[in-house]
Amino acid sequence: MNKLIQETTALTMRSVRRLARERISMAFGLIQPMLFWLILFGNLFQKTAQIPGFQAPNYITFLTAGVVVMTVLNSGLSGGVDLLFDKESGFLERLLSAPISRNSLIFSRFIFVMAITSVQILIILLVAYLLFGVYPHSGLLGLGFIMLVGLFFGLGLIAISLTLAFAIKGHGNFFALMGFLTLPLIFLSTALVPLQAMPGWMAFVAEFNPMTYAVEAVREVIIGGWFWGDMLKILVILLVFDAVSIGLSSRVFHRQVG
Amino acid sequence: MKAIEIHSLKKIFGDKSVLDNLTLDVEKGEVFGLLGPNGAGKTTMIRTVLTLLKPTAGRVIVWGHDVASHPREVRQVLGYVPQEKAVDRFLTGREHLLLVADLYHLTKSDAQNRIGTVLELVDLADRADEVVNNYSGGMKKKLDIACGLIPDPKILVLDEPTLGLDVESRIRIWDYIRQLQRGGLTILMTTNYLDEADQLCSRIAILDRGRLAALGSPEGLKKGLGGDRVTVQFSPEDDRLEKLAGSLKQELPFISDVKVSAEDHALEIRVASNEEALAPLIQSIHKHGKPILAIQYSRPTLEDVFVTYTGHKIKEDSALL
Description:
The complex is a heterodimer. By secondary structure, chain A is mainly alpha-helical. Chain A is 79% helix and 0% strand. By secondary structure, chain B is of the alpha/beta class. In chain B, 36% of the residues lie in helices and 27% in strands. Chain B has helices at 42-49, 71-77, 93-103, 108-121, 137-149, 167-182, 194-200, 218-223, 241-251, 274-287, 302-310; strands spanning 4-13, 16-26, 31-35, 57-62, 65-66, 78-81, 155-159, 186-191, 203-208, 211-216, 228-234, 255-261, 266-271, 292-298. In chain B, the strands form 3 sheets. Chain B has a 6-stranded mixed sheet, with helices on both faces. In chain B, α3 (93-103) runs parallel beside α5 (137-149). The two termini of chain B are 37 Å apart. Chain A binds chain B through residues 3, 6-7, 9-11, 13-14, 17-18, 21-22, 89-91, 93-100, 257-258, and chain B through 50-52, 54, 71-73, 75-76, 78, 80, 82-88, 90-91, 95, 98-100, 102-105, 131, 147, 151.
């Protein structure tokens, strides 16, 4: 157990040290969701709020939940990238030839990516509050719940990303597939428009998208409701999503690294 | 106990056999070289020893532990220097070594001591706190070796340690390897530079298409070819070199073998020892009325060993890949 902690800490610290030296990419990673989605997209699509049945007071309030979850999506799906580059550079061979538990490689990724994602969520919520006056009406408890949803959704995404990083040959293919996956996941969810405003088949598909549930949960606590039944159901759905992705990931992982 | 024992090792990827019935031992304290062109199975064998690949059949025992059933014990006694310069350009040299020390579960004070010793050995102490991005190729390789040495391993595994390095760095790295061997470390290395194997290795195994083609000390293998080689070249008008080859073999007892090279119009003659062989040989050829265009005398090299056992040259261009 002590060994596992020592390994995991060392591997996590490696990512932290890298991040501290990659300030430009860190800054862009933080600014991108805010500038692009919240400000540009939010202003461009203001009139969406006039759709009948739209429940949020305005589009920005509606969109904030979408941006939070999209950020989780992006960070989560790129959670395997470092591993992919380690695989290509031979660094992974060095790590795997050490007498470490294979799980520490995975744990350190989860810890690092989730820590970064949590900071990103907090900054997005802060900007949404400062610029647009949007804040979670359910208070601190709601904020904690948003973080929890981010964590649950992110866990499964990182697992998927790690699986692909192991299974796919070459980072070109990896990024192509990521690009191919990301936009449909966003558009086939309620991140940008409510279910009622979607064409029938898209709304149907969106109901099977775990992202829809993450978005709905975050949105509910931002707009103000506290629906225990819904929240619990959503957390269970996200946990099932995690279990499936992690199960898949650990099979691929252990086949690759023994 | 041997450092490494390999019994009838087989490795098959899909339907491609990469290692075929490989059996060999590595003694404690020796520098053992795996020699062969790319695709011969060197890296596959190394990765099997490192527990990164499971054998399809056969057994590999490292320092008394079976790689298949006790991979963790095996990893504990090995230090590994991969072929690529496996460094993270955003970390400093010292941060690399700290990371590796933690992966081998060294205590804080042990880690500090080892890092100091190892940095001293590879002359990186004064650059240790710089980001690796600023390092030259040779320095990255030194750091790579330092990482391999951090756990104070019983066996150091080096995969192509000087591939793509400039001459000066190569010589430095050869020095380190010799120094480590004097300190009693067992070293398993692959190379496709024959001079490197000749200079460093106590014993070498030549792998060819997954099979063990030859095994022995560089000296022993060279001697095993049956003596020195005299190449005699004749003018292009001289045909019937086969007949001359036959007569020479009959007349001169110290000749062990004669090969005719038709396109070069030359004879390749193996002789026991040049001091006694050269004069009678020239006399004899002269007697047969064949004018000699050129004559070349050489001791066998590892290249000759390689060609003899594999039937082809170790491709020079493969070293560049």
